[in-house]
Amino acid sequence: LLRAGLALIVLGHGSLVLGAIVHGSVLRHVAGTGRTVTPEYAAANVVSVGSGLLSIALGIVAILVSHNPPRAALHWTLLSVSLLNLLLSTACSVGLVLAIALTIHGRGRHLVVGCNSSVLPADTRDAIVTNECPFNTTRIYDTALALWIPSLVLVVTEVVLSGRCCLAALIFRGIRPCACSYGKEQV
């Protein structure tokens, strides 16, 4: 439980940093004044940052439980926070898969939907900087994918560790069927 807590803290900080970089280097250009960003990208970014913060909190609770095993209040806190993080991280992974799929399927056109430029080609990787689209669309496309894929790996790992923390909380509380197969000493 201690190692899972430490790993969740590190993964949470990684998700938080990657979400901030995506916002600063991709979504800031796309959602500038007068332009819009599709809600899928904004939602995936916000949920990614929220998942990172909740993973950090879950890591702290897991570390506290590992140092104070007999405290029932900490067991219930671990169970509730791990379930919440499990749901939020799962939603984040679905959102990131959706964002990656939309970007790859549309060849980046969904990222630059606010440019409304008739000179943009069908593949944004071939686009150049124009007055209507003052940022390099090639860089936006490549940067978005290069940051979303590691973020997806971090979030899926958060899902696995949140599930393990949830299982540990169920074992500590003696809730069936988990209590039958494991002992508190094994946890």
Number of domains: 1
State the helical fraction.
over 70%
Work out the helix count: 5
Sketch the topology as an H/E string, one letter per element: HHHHH
Q: Note the beta-strand portion.
A: under 5%
Q: Using the CA coordinates, give the radius of gyration.
A: 20 Å
The secondary-structure class comes to mainly alpha
- Which quaternary structure do these chains form? single chain
Low-confidence blocks of residues:
none
Distance, first to last CA: 7 Å
Walk me through what this model shows.
The chain has 187 residues and is mainly α. It has one domain (1-107, 147-173). 71% of the residues lie in helices and 0% in strands. The chain is built from 5 helices and no strands. The chain has helices spanning 2-30, 39-67, 72-105, 137-173, 178-181. The chain is elongated, with a radius of gyration of 20 Å. The termini are close together. The mean pLDDT is 78. Pfam families: BCLP (PF12304). The chain crosses the membrane at residues 43-65, 77-104. It comes from Ceyx cyanopectus. It is a multi-pass membrane protein. This is KCP3 protein.
In short:
Belongs to the TMEM54 family. By secondary structure, the protein is mainly alpha-helical. The protein has helices at 2-30, 39-67, 72-105, 137-173, 178-181.
Output the keywords.
mainly alpha, 187 residues, 0% strand
Q: Would you spell out the secondary-structure blueprint of this structure?
A:
Elements: H1 2-30, H2 39-67, H3 72-105, H4 137-173, H5 178-181
Helix pairs in contact: 1-2, 1-4, 2-3, 2-4, 3-4
